[in-house]
Amino acid sequence: MKGKYEGWYCEGCEEFKSDKQYDENNGLCPNHKTPLTRRSEPCYFFKLSAFQDRLLKHYEANPDFIQPESRRNEIVSLIKTEGCATFPSAG
C-alpha cells in the first residue's frame, strides 16, 4: 500500500524515532541529544500484522531462525506483548 510516513526524524541516526522516544527524551534524539525534526516522506507500507501468528509459529518451529537465543526471546516477547505493526518501507 502506497502512502506517506510522517514522524520524528534524527539526521544523525538517519532514522525515524517513535512518539514514545520523542516524549521520553523531551524531543531530543536519545543517541545524539539533538532536536528531532518532524519529517514526511512517500513510502510503501508492509502489513506485518497480517503475518503475526504465522511468524510466531515459524519462530517456535525453527528456534535457530533468530540468533542468538536472547534476541529470539526478545522478538517473540515483543510480538506477543505489542503485536506486529504496519511498517513503512522507502519506495
Describe the fold and architecture.
The protein is an alpha+beta fold and 91 residues long. 33% of the residues lie in helices and 31% in strands. It has three helices and four strands; from the N terminus they run ββαβααβ. The chain has helices at 19-24, 52-61, 69-82, and strands spanning 2-10, 15-17, 37-47, 86-90. A four-stranded antiparallel beta sheet has the order 2-1-3-4. The protein is globular and about 45 Å long. The model has no long low-confidence stretch (mean pLDDT 88).
Indicate the percent of residues in helices: 25-40%
Q: Roughly what is the average pLDDT, rounded to an integer?
A: 88
Order of secondary-structure elements = EEHEHHE
Straight-line N-to-C gap: 10 Å
Shape: globular
How would a crystallographer describe the biggest sheet? 4 strands, antiparallel
Give the count of helical stretches. Answer: 3
| Largest sheet, spatial ordering of strands | 2-1-3-4
The percent range for strand residues is 25-35%
Computed Rg: 16 Å
Say how many strands there are.
4
- Quaternary structure: single chain
SSE diagram, text form:
Blueprint lengths: L1 E9 L4 E3 L1 H6 L12 E11 L4 H10 L7 H14 L3 E5 L1
Antiparallel strand pairs: 1-2, 1-3, 3-4
Keyword list:
91 residues; alpha+beta; four-stranded antiparallel β-sheet; 3 helices; 4 strands; 31% strand; globular
Q: How would you summarize this macromolecular structure in one to three sentences?
A:
The protein has 91 residues and is of the alpha+beta class.
